[in-house]
Amino acid sequence: MADAIVTPWEVKGTVDYDRLITEFGTSKITPELKHRMEKLFGKLHVMLSRDIYYSHRDLDVILNELESGRKIFLYTGVGPSSEMHIGHVIPMSFTKWLQEKTGANLYIEVTDDEKFMFKKERKLEEIERIADDDILNVIALGFDPEKTFIFKDTEYIRNMYRLATRVAKEVNFSTVKAVFGFTNSTNIGMIFYPTLQMLPTFFEKNYCLIPAAIDQDPYWRIQRDIAEKLGYRKAAQIHSKFVPALTGIGGKMSASHPETAILFNDDEKTVEKKVMKYAFSGGQESIELHRKLGGNPDVDVSFLWLKYLFEPDDKRLKQIEDDYRSGKLLSGELKQILVEKLNAFLVEHRKRKEQARKLVEKFMHTGALAQKMWNTYYE
Amino acid sequence: MADAIVTPWEVKGTVDYDRLITEFGTSKITPELKHRMEKLFGKLHVMLSRDIYYSHRDLDVILNELESGRKIFLYTGVGPSSEMHIGHVIPMSFTKWLQEKTGANLYIEVTDDEKFMFKKERKLEEIERIADDDILNVIALGFDPEKTFIFKDTEYIRNMYRLATRVAKEVNFSTVKAVFGFTNSTNIGMIFYPTLQMLPTFFEKNYCLIPAAIDQDPYWRIQRDIAEKLGYRKAAQIHSKFVPALTGIGGKMSASHPETAILFNDDEKTVEKKVMKYAFSGGQESIELHRKLGGNPDVDVSFLWLKYLFEPDDKRLKQIEDDYRSGKLLSGELKQILVEKLNAFLVEHRKRKEQARKLVEKFMHTGALAQKMWNTYYE
Fold it and tell me: Nearest to residue B314, comparing CAs of B41, B44, B34, B46?
């Protein structure tokens, strides 16, 4: 296996997820932890039972809190660098499930500042346009509008900046250099920015649980170093694997490479074309060979997307897997199953997105949690 | 002459002001520029005629604007690190004069964020307490409440942050390292902070004139490199010398070293004691020798304070200088003149400070300019 690069801004190469646990110093989600979650939440989310969420920090502490009837809170984020794609469903729908099961407050940070400052050619107006669309997508996925606060950094900064000065004071250039690979040519906005990504972990004195892909882990390592000194809790995390790119498991979906991803805005024809043309196949070179040797679902992206996202029924998934492995199910047929699932999801999603427009104010300003947040100045 | 250190955070050693002009690449205020100011403003402020304001960048451009009847704006700042002392009267009373003469809008930035993040042991609450007292001192010096906006960074950040991301994106770590001597152990808040000190220079599309001691110059060098790219004007500056410390001309007054400074809050007895005990004297070792050889007003801090701040009458100042040089005026007598002037100023100042409490809201929120500023979001 070639060495993979995994940072908050880049994922390249075939990722060895177990090695990431060792490298990052996180822990595997054990059967015992899953058992405790089953007792607390009822049936496990398939992203847990299928090991898509597979790593954590302090998940046991979070479960202790919940078992003792204490409140926790949830935090996740959206980076509006380009249109959202279906890879984003993983953290969002899992977070939604966690909110349903725990009744926890949820904070969703829209990091418009970061995405603008990260690349030279980007214009702020463009980022804001993307951010507004992302917010509709997030709302469409369905969260509790009274218990969820969605905010843009460039707006909520007014309530965060005082606390941000306390956080920033604890982190020096050496640290962000080591953790994020910043250099002398990194701009001073990006150097400051990790402060704001850490900040929502201090929104409550309760324990915070962050569901996110494992590449975001570096932020939380710094947070965990400084939290207690500032009078807060170390943030707990639950880490997912990446949804493989349409073009193969050696990378992450990216809206800037349209062949790798299905965007929320892709229409039915585009979805079909992309899957048929680009979805990396674990099948054989000819139908004859496929019938004889069978396909390999472990590298077949259509199968993996069904497993990660679009086929919640374990029995049905197993059937697809077996049929594919035996050669009974052809690659084109497997792709067709995915296309149907994808389009069913996207058609429904776009309907909910239209309705989401009416809810933006609630999530951002007038919902119970949002109102409380705009009246809270963090010191 | 030993090498002096002059940065925005440190002034040490005997400063060679002409050399600073060469080093910083600024220009001397020429007789021709003074003549133009006389024509525009009437009689020159003594801080100009006595060369306390002695250096500039683009003052000629500012005078062009004013001569053509166009508006400029003024910007200066307060760093609430410790109680204000009479050294702060130099930029403030000169700025007040400029506002009277030009009718310009004035922005006064209170850099509470910087002063908090700069030193490990400082608490934010302490900085805010000092900031609130500083604001009263500033108001007591008398500005136009409809044309002056006083703001704390930690509050006005809400209107500045979007533009701040654009500014920060243009400045990398190499630059702030070279200009401010930042290192790997500088915290990421301080690294970002120059962005906010530059920001008020972009509050208007007009030309900005900054009256400040010359040690603040580095900020404006970066501003001048990036302003036009962002669609704004290069900031013009007019630079003052430092009021010498009470203890001698080799340094700057500092409230954290009480023997070097007279604080706005020092009572009459304290003022007298400090001047008598600490004011560096240019006199001789005995009265006999002094009568015979005379004193040296060029290094006598009591004389210099009269010249810089407390004796506006040129004739009277000349008389004092001649009498001291000839030996007619003794050091103790010279000190007594300063004590009387200082206490007259401070008694009056504290009266105005009491009245200032009623004006805080106006300068910070309800005055014409303040209202406009709270409704302006900089992009």
Answer: B46
CB contact A129 to B (< 8 Å): no
Q: How confident is the model at residue B1 (pLDDT cuts 50, 70, 90)?
A: very low
List of residues 6+ apart from B61 with CB closer than 8 A: B207, B236
Beta strand B105-110 with B148-152 is parallel
The shortest C-alpha distance from A184 to chain B (Å) reads: 5
- C-alpha B248, offset from chain centre: 19
- Ordered by where they begin, the domains of chain A are 5-245 (3.40.50.620), 253-355 (1.10.240.10)
Give ∠ CA B41-B44-B50 in degrees, rounded to 5: 160
Query: At a CB cut-off of 8 Å and minimum separation 6, what does B361 contact?
Result: none
Partner B contacted by A178 (CB < 8 A) = no
B166, closest residue in chain A (CA to CA):
A117
- Residues in chain B closer than 8 A to A153 (CB atoms): 161
Place of tokens 């074309």: A273
User: What tokens does A313 get?
Assistant: 């029924």
Res B8: pLDDT: 58
Amino acid at B324: Y
Q: Per-residue pLDDT tens for A2-41?
A: 456 666 556 566 678 899 899 889 999 999 999 999 999 9
**Per the structure block, which two tokens stand in for B87?**
């050294």
**A169/B195 CB distance under 8 A:** no
Task: Supply the DSSP string of A76-93, one letter for each residue.
Answer: EEE-TTS--BGGGHHHHH
Instruction: Using an 8 Å CB-CB cutoff, list chain B residues near A166.
Output: 116, 124
| Three-class secondary structure of residue A32 per DSSP | helix
- Each residue of B256-304: pLDDT tens digit? 788 899 999 999 999 999 999 999 999 999 999 999 999 999 999 999 9
State the Cα–Cα distance between residues B359 and B362, nearest whole angstrom.
5
DSSP state of A106: E
Bridge partners, A78 (sequence order): A110
The complex scores an ipTM of: 0.91
Structure pTM? 0.92
CA dihedral A336, A337, A340, A343 (to 10 degrees): -90
Q: CA nearest B164 in A: which residue?
A: A189
Interatomic CA distance for residues B42 and B328, integer angstroms? 35
State the sign of the Cα–Cα–Cα–Cα dihedral B178, B15, B279, B264: negative
Which of B262, B281, B257, B264 shows the shortest CA–CA distance to B272? B262
At residue A2, the pLDDT reads 42
C-alpha A63: how far from chain center: 21
Residue owning tokens 């990504």: A197
- On whether any CB of chain B is under 8 Å from the CB of A171, the answer is yes
Q: Tell me which residue of B195, B10, B183 sits closest to B114, measured CA to CA.
A: B195
- Beta-strand pair B72-78/B207-213: parallel
The Cα angle at residue A304 between residues A299 and A306, in degrees rounded to 5: 150
* Distance between CA atoms of residues B251 and B261, nearest Å: 11
- Mutation site, B155, B187, B190, interface A, largest A CB count within 10 A: B187
Cα A6 to Cα A16, A214, A215, A217, B76, distances in angstroms: 10, 9, 6, 10, 45
Nearest to B43 by CA among B100, B105, B104, B106: B100
Dihedral pair phi/psi, residue A109, rounded to 5°: -90, 125
